[in-house]
Design a protein that fits this description.
5 helices; globular; Rossmann fold; alpha/beta
C-alpha cells in the first residue's frame, strides 16, 4: 500500500512524520499547497495530522472529494477544522479539561464503543484517554469506534458519505506526541499507525 501524509511543517508534525519512530509508516510527505500536483489515486490512504491549518486545506476540498468518490481513504486527526475540506463533518467543540487526571479518582469518560473492531487489537481504552476537544454528530450508518462520557462519538469510520472511507477523530495524538507531552498519545500512534498500514489498504469493509 501507499500512505501519503500531509506535512504542514510545525515542530510536532516534523516529530511525528519525519522522526525515526514513525516515518516508515508514510511513503510520501507533501505540503498542503503541493496537493494539486499529486495524483491522489496512487495512494490508498491520505493521512492528515493534528492541527493541519484548515485554510491551507480548504482550497483542495474538491480534489479530496474526488479522491473519496474514487474509493480512497482519508484519515484525519484532531483540531483540523475538518468541515472546511471534508464532507459531512458536524463537530461540536467543548471546553478542554487539561488537568482532570490530577484529581484523585477522576476519569475522562472515554469509552471504546466497538471493541470487536480490528483497531482495538492494537489499542486499549487507556491509549485513547488524555483529554477531549469535542464530539461529532456523524451521518447515520457510520461505525462509531469511541465515545465520550455522554456517549457522543469522538472516533468513527464513515463509509456511507462517499464511495471511499473517512476515519475521523477529535483526538490529537500527533500534537502531543510531537510535543513530548502525554505518553498515551505515543501509545495511541504506536497502535494506530501500524493498524492504518495493515488494515486500510484492504478497501472498504463489506
Amino acid at each position: 500500500m501507499s500512505v501519503l501524509a500531509i506535512h504542514p511543517g510545525a515542530y510536532y508534525h516534523i516529530e511525528t512524520l519525519e522522526a525515526p519512530r514513525y516515518r516508515h509508516h508514510f511513503d510520501r510527505l507533501v505540503r498542503p499547497e503541493e496537493l494539486p500536483s499529486v495524483e491522489l489515486s496512487e495512494h490508498q490512504v491520505l493521512f492528515i495530522p493534528c492541527r493541519t491549518p484548515a485554510d491551507r486545506m480548504a482550497p483542495h476540498a474538491a480534489q479530496l472529494r474526488t479522491y473519496l468518490d474514487q474509493g480512497g481513504t482519508i484519515v484525519a486527526t484532531g483540531e483540523t477544522a475538518w468541515e472546511a475540506f471534508l464532507p459531512a463533518i458536524h463537530f461540536t467543540p467543548q471546553p478542554t479539561n487539561w488537568w482532570w487526571w490530577l484529581t484523585q479518582g477522576a476519569g475522562l469518560g472515554v469509552r471504546i464503543s466497538a471493541p470487536g473492531h480490528s483497531l482495538f487489537e492494537h489499542l486499549g481504552q487507556d491509549d485513547l484517554t488524555w483529554h477531549l476537544h469535542g464530539w461529532f454528530d456523524p451521518p447515520e450508518g457510520v461505525e462509531v469506534l469511541a465515545v465520550n462520557e455522554e456517549g457522543k462519538p469522538i472516533l468513527y469510520v464513515d463509509e456511507v458519505t462517499t464511495a471511499g472511507r473517512m476515519v475521523i477523530t477529535s483526538l490529537d495524538p500527533c500534537f502531543h506526541h510531537g510535543s513530548h507531552f502525554m505518553p498515551a498519545t505515543t501509545r495511541f500512534l504506536d497502535g494506530f499507525l501500524p493498524w492504518m498500514r495493515k488494515e486500510l489498504d484492504k478497501g472498504k469493509s463489506e
